């Protein structure tokens, strides 16, 4: 007697198809989950790689050795300052009689315990009056000072009432992972050297950036270009004037400069407590 064959019913075929579809869906879901996991692991690995690269770059920047000797930018003097004067046409530029040559950090001297502030190169009877300002691009009080008085400083200088000397120091490098204070001082020296008429505009713009955080070298070059000093990428990304900035910092320490901003006019220091009206204090001295 022949064996009987069973042909699946329509219901059975439908049920089998559904089961196959369920298994396929389950397999696809599992595969997608595995793929998602690998994608996530890949993203994490990429992030970790980027972090590692950033850390490596930061370490390299912190460890980069600044030479003891280097160039003095146009307008720079032997005290680590950049001197601004009237251009004779209502504007301000660096003093073209200054700059060139080299400066050596070893000549800055060392601080003496208990020494009173006595910055080198101050004059009591300069004509026009000599103003010397110590600033740090990463200093919030310096940013406020620049915001309040930059235009007035420019007017006094353009009118020939004062020579304006900025000593850009790096007192806050210890608070920066990238030596921003020193890099900013280098960028300012680059502008003084290559676009002297743009110095004050760039300085004002750079200090205005302080509340938003540190800039990269390329961002400082872009900011310089926006303020009339183009083509500085190579300079801001180099150590061309880092020895000059390092000298300014070491000299400020040796001269017991108390902090930033610190202002001297005709050899006298501005005391914000006894003379809270800075403009009146300056006007009284230059008149």
How would you describe this protein?
The longest helix is centred in the first third of the chain and has 54 residues, at 10-63. The protein has helices at residues 10-63, 140-158, 180-194, 199-208, 217-226, 233-236, 242-254, 278-286, and strands at 69-71, 82-86, 92-94, 102-104, 129-135, 162-168, 262-265, 268-269. The strands form two sheets. It has a six-stranded mixed beta sheet with strand order 3-2-6-5-7-8, sandwiched between helices. A two-stranded antiparallel ribbon has the order 1-4. It is 47% helix and 12% strand. It is elongated and about 120 Å long. Mean pLDDT is 88; it is low at 54-63. The relative contact order is 0.16. With 287 residues, it is of the alpha+beta class. It starts with 9 loop residues before the first helix and ends with a helix. The chain has two domains: 11-63; 69-286, Glutaredoxin, CATH 3.40.30. It has eight helices and eight strands, in the order αβββββαβαααααββα.
């Amino acid at each position: 007697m022949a064996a009987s064959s069973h042909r699946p019913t329509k219901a059975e075929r439908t049920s089998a198809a559904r089961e196959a579809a369920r298994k396929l869906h389950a397999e696809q879901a599992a595969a997608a989950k595995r793929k998602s996991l690998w994608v996530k692991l890949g993203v994490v690995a990429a992030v970790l790689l980027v972090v590692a690269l950033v850390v490596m770059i930061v370490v390299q920047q912190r460890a980069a050795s600044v030479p003891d000797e280097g160039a003095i930018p146009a307008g720079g003097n032997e005290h680590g300052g950049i001197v601004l004067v009237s251009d004779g046409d209502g504007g301000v530029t660096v003093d073209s009689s200054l700059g060139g040559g080299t400066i050596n950090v070893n000549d800055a001297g060392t601080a003496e315990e208990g020494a009173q502030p006595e910055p080198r190169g101050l004059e009591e009877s300069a004509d026009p009056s000599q103003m010397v300002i110590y600033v740090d691009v990463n200093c919030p009080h310096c940013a406020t000072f620049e915001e309040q008085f930059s235009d007035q400083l420019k007017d006094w200088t353009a009118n020939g009432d004062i020579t304006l000397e900025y000593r850009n120091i790096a007192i806050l490098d210890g608070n920066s992972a990238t030596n921003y204070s020193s890099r900013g001082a280098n960028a300012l020296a680059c502008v003084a050297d290559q676009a002297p008429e743009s110095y004050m505009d760039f300085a004002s713009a750079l200090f205005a950036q302080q509340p938003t955080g540190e800039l990269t070298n390329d961002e400082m070059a872009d900011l310089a270009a926006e303020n009339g000093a183009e083509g500085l990428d190579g300079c801001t990304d180099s150590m061309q004037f880092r020895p000059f900035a390092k000298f300014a910092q070491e000299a400020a320490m040796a001269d017991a400069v108390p902090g930033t901003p610190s202002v001297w006019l005709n050899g006298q220091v501005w005391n914000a407590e006894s003379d809270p009206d800075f403009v009146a204090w300056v006007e009284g001295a230059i008149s």
